[in-house]
Amino acid sequence: MRKLISTGSPFEKTAGYSRAVVQGDWCFVSGTTGYDYATMTMPETVEEQTRNCLATIAKALRDGGFDMADVVRAHYYITDQAYVDAVFPILGEVFGDIRPAATMIVCQLNKPEMKIEIEVTALRRTA
């Protein structure tokens, strides 16, 4: 059974995507930037943006019946190599014990204020 998860972000409707898609025991979370969706503002720092990304991802996973411990794959996209040392400790706080397969890429993102984008894939754990 397929379930679509939304944050209510206007970008989802405009661009035609879901924040996450649950298919069976899998949850695929779209690339998530650092917007605060309550205020539709973007923090200035990559650290704050990273925390917002992770909070949005955690909520999408919960809405789909998953949690962060179910994450098996993570892709991190940053706009400046200098951000690596700033975001690693934050990612380590969340994923340090989970240790998903991960990739970090330095690239341009869709808007100049975006400094990081994170996407994850989760597989529901069985007891």
From TrEMBL:
CDD domains given in the database record: YjgF_YER057c_UK114_like_6
Matches recorded under InterPro entries: RutC-like_sf (IPR035959), YjgF/YER057c/UK114 (IPR006175)
Signal peptide: none
Superkingdom in the source lineage: Bacteria
Record-given protein name: RidA family protein
